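Notes to self, Peptide methionine sulfoxide reductase MsrA:
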Amino acid sequence: MKNIKRSLLLTAGLILAISCQTKAKKGETAESGRQATAPQMEKEVPQDLSAYETAYFASGCFWCVEAIFESVKGVAEAESGYAGGTEENPTYEQVSYGRTTHAEAVKVYYDPEVVSFFELVQVFFGSHDPTTPNRQGPDRGPQYRSIAFYENDSERQIITAYMEALEEQRVYDRPIVTEVSPLTQFYKAEEYHQDYERKHPDNPYIQNVSVPRLNRFKANFQDFLKEDIH
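result:
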């Protein structure tokens, strides 16, 4: 992969001109080192998110993706969940075992006066490898595939135009395999998954996969970060 920060910034100008797979049982560790332990405290959520716009993305382990988007200024909240499949009310055990057509995904609540949907698309592509089919880091399977969801035609055009620009500039050494799909349904994940990285800093998967991934994003996108994020 080439210099992603420089290439993505060039692409932004162009556009504007035109194994997270666990055994699924709480406490059981996966080959990748991920271990899902239910916390004792509930997720602290703003009381009213109705004034915010929403965006949906899937790019591997939702623990990692949630933490990345919550570091972005203008993002009020990010929720871990499941999307991209047809089964109703999927559970973590079903999705993580690959027993559904869903992917681990996040729902992002954001203030469009502070951060645009286009900038969230930049965050999405800049924080994972969109060239690896059914895989992100140590996590393998279609439940970890890359998907950019859209809720209207304007969002679809933003996503596809940005992908085309990335391909034209040869930002990646391999073709982008990200799915561009309409958002049909998002199922919020079990409460113990919400804010998992913050609540479980000593988890081996968090230390070895999630935190390094977040730190790479923060190093390349400093202008996108909230003031209290270091």
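- Residues 73 and 226 are 4 Å apart (CA to CA).
- The first helix runs from residue 4 to 17.
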